[in-house]
What does this fold into?
Amino acid sequence: MGRQIKTEENKVKKNKKKKKFHIGRIIFLIIIVVCVIVGIIFAKRLSDLKGNWMAVLLGHNKETVENLETLRILVMGESTGMSDTIIVCSYNPKTQNVSMLSIPRDTYVTNENYKYSAYNKINSLYSGGKTPEKTVQAVNEITGLDINYYILVDTEALIKLVNLIEGVYFDVPIDMNYDDDGQDLHIHLTKGYQKLTGEQVEQVVRFRHNNDGTSYPPDYGDEDYGRMKTQRNIIMEIAKQTIKLKNITEIKNILNIMKEEVKTNVNFNSIIDYVPYAVNVDMSTIKTSQLPGVSENRGGYGWFFYYDENETKKIVDELFNGNSLPE
It folds into this structure.
């Protein structure tokens, strides 16, 4: 009788072990199946998103990019209290088109209190109350665009960013030699491809002409045109070199610089979906130009840049609407 009870107990134990084994195997198989399904979904999304693993990790699918609208931001560089660098930047994530339009700092704008004074120059709009929105409004009126965002970067932020990524390689277009003790501005750089520190990048973006009067060659863009072209080129190089893999570890410090030194109305949570696609932009395809017009001293009131409305419409249409200019 006792032997029979023990036999029954052993059978129960064996059955429990079998059940545990079966349950464990089922759970293992479920995990395997789930992993396979997740892997298939990940691979499918990776295929749909053309290998963009960052987009997949953010939970994107191929519809995500289709729902992203063109992003347009007015980038302003502050120097001596004025926005001396003004560039319209546009990014279309569907086509991967990036366009940049420079606005001369001396562009004439109407002012109800003045007709011809320093306050009629577009770079003065920010200095009067430190309100970037006024500059955005003026640029929208000039270009006919609907720009909602702005980023205001001072020279200190530029210096810190470039030094954080350990410098930026750039082809300095000409020998630059300029000293202005009044502004404590001293520019001394030699022509050629080289690695620049943050302080040297500041010199490049602020350069207009040498003390002896020489400036950029005519085929490059003399004086302000040359300066604006150089500014666009170096911004592209900084962007390209900032997103290199080796600088990903500095993303926290980069964001800290932006938080402390950059003034913007951009909600970074709203544009995070653009990041996986923007990092894959082919920098060589970026279209750049500057506002068309002439610099003139009309009526002896000083030099202003007067933009050409018809040519501006053509340039804007080409850069931002994807239409080619007529031959």
